[in-house]
Specification:
Order of helices and strands: EHEHEHHEHEHEHEHEHEHEH
Number of strands: 10
Distance between the termini: 44 Å
CATH superfamily of the largest domain: Response regulator
Structural class: alpha/beta
CATH class of the largest domain: Alpha Beta
CATH topology of the largest domain: Rossmann fold
Number of domains: 2
Length: 268
């Protein structure tokens, strides 16, 4: 099993060098992205990397806080975070980050030390996989869990909009953001959300097309759907509601209280 590694950070020279070395010499599945909240969030919408390497340089409080979009991955130990920094940036990072668990590697960077750490992560993952397979015992409880957090699937091609909605709702719900109807169906093959927030206007398959496709499958047909729409499409959306009968619509941009209130109206 080859590691999936995401490399980011303001130190673009080290980021590029590390990406090339890991790809060419270790043959890891390596991706590089901009160290912005939007860039990082967009990358995390895909398959979660096993390792995130952050290469710091001349940081500020604001630039460090952009990495807080990774805090759930850090909290849940979904991936390993390695921070490459000099002493000054390291201290600043520790003062202002919300990430809970990470490893620091000093500059100038030792590729040998990095390789050894990544190899140990690889070995731990393999060992964990073997242990987990041995522990699985299937149980199906037919009684519903009334106390579980309800889940919301948000489908919107606008990354900034996904960030805002996720931040607004994650206090109350388990939120999964995706950027297209295709990604939504990929999610639905494995999970059935309690409700779907669906952008009305999207490139390729628009919201009404995605909703029609959802209604074609019996296992998805009863999932409540709320359209997300701009004010300019409001009248068109109202006509579509008469045809497709979703559970309503929310006009963007919308306040946190408005989104939560609409979901409560539908789910109780």
């Amino acid at each position: 099993m080859k590691l999936k590694v995401l490399v980011t950070g303001r130190n673009t020279k080290i980021s590029t060098d590390v990406t090339e070395h890991l790809s060419d010499e270790k043959h890891y599945i390596t991706t590089q992205c901009d160290p912005t909240q939007t860039g990082l969030f967009k990358m995390m919408l895909g398959d979660m990397p096993d390792v995130i390497i952050i290469c710091l340089r001349n940081e500020s409080k604001e630039s460090i806080q952009a990495y807080n979009v990774l805090k759930n991955a850090s909290k849940e130990k979904a991936c390993t975070i390695i921070v490459v920094a000099d002493e000054e940036d390291e201290q600043l990072f520790m003062q202002h980050t919300e990430l809970q668990r990470m490893y620091f590697l000093s500059r100038p960077i030792s590729l040998m030390a990095l390789y050894q750490k990544l190899e140990s992560i690889e070995e731990e993952m393999e060992e964990t996989k073997r242990k987990n397979l041995a522990l699985f015992r299937e149980f199906e409880n037919e009684a519903p869990d009334k106390n579980r957090r309800k889940s919301v699937l948000v489908v919107d091609d606008d990354t900034e909009q996904l960030i805002v909605i996720k931040e607004n709702l994650e206090e109350f719900y388990d939120v999964t953001p995706v950027k297209s109807g295709k990604a939504a169906f990929k999610y639905l093959t494995k999970h059935i959300p309690d409700i779907i927030l669906l952008d009305y206007l999207m490139p390729g398959e628009d919201g009404p097309t995605v909703l029609r496709n959802i209604r074609m499958f019996d296992e998805y047909a009863d999932i409540p759907v709320i359209f997300l729409t701009g004010m300019s499409e409001k009248q068109t959306v109202i006509q579509t509601i008469k045809e497709l009968k979703p559970q309503g619509y929310i006009v963007k941009p919308s306040k946190k209280s408005e989104i939560v209130a609409k979901i409560i109206d539908v789910l109780g």
